[in-house]
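User: Fold this; tokens only.

Assistant: Input:
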Amino acid sequence: MRSNMRVIILVPGLPVNLEKIRGGVHSAVANLLRGFSALPEVQIRVIAFSREVAEEKTVKFAPNIEICYVPEGNFPYHSINYLLHGPRILKKHIKQFRPDIIHYEEGNTFMFTKLFGLKNTKYLLTIHGMSFDEAKRKKKIKDKITWYFNGLVAVYMTPGNIIHLSNFSKNKHANRKIVKQSIIPNAIVPAYFQVAQKGSTDNIWLYIGIIDNNKNLIFQLEALKELVSRGKFYKLEVLGDFSNDAYKDLILSYVKGNKLEDYVHFNGWVSQPEVLSHIAKADILVVSSKHESLPMVIAESMAAGKVVVASTVGGIPEMVQDQVNGFLYDLSEPEKLVNILSDLYNNNEKIKSISAKAKETATERYQCENVARKTLAFYEQCLV
């Protein structure tokens, strides 16, 4: 392995204040950087296309890592900015930094930045989402068109070197002309692994993420209603905000109409340290999504030694082994979620056993430095 590899990582919209990251690709990038900070043999320059800055700004993340925030451009559409300004910016940084390889952390129209700018530099992409799948989930015509366009761009501009987060992603892209590929899940910061294990359960379950039709909070509320009728009085802590007023009205009306106010607490968006605090106090994370790839919130909760109860969609079954390190259920069988949670209520022994296995699994798969080393090894493969 070469002693001083130089890497440019490209990402759109990374917050200047990293404490304001709300998950997703930005969390994945920040966690990967934390892993790379322990590997002095690699030098990293992150180029973050941003609407927060009016001129280029460089921040030192670690002795071997710098983040360059560059103005995205003045056009209202990201894709036009990437097309008209991105190649020039990237070309300048390639000349300055002389990278061995370029790592795209976002695809779709963000790949416009490579046009006329990469020269002969090797590059790769981490696939974080599925544009065509996202398009199918959108309700508004404008949003559908945007995501279908992203999908078409991805078909024609996906590079030959790919990092997948899961086998689910790999299988979805089986018909693409991929030369080299690897499955490397997102990293989780050490703070989650350091969460102290609780001595007993408080019957607190968490919902974390945007509150929308896909994340399917209503499904959890229906389960909570049934559990309360059985005398299982869980406390549901909701971390996240509503995507639109219509879904907000649906959720709040359901809570009020079924007298669940004493059992549901809406916290809104909270900072990453606050998320960690909520996870530390909780016993269970419930995921009821209709579509997912490889949710970081599951990996984070497992790293913290929490019981994950999740729907069998996307790459989730690759993360959670039913009744071993967590629990799985099908959305077509709402009674199964109710029965799982009913069995876990006040069940200190089972929660302790599953929690320990979840933490063991997460330690093997998601530690920052381990993920960074796997990523660095894939860079080497791409350069051969």
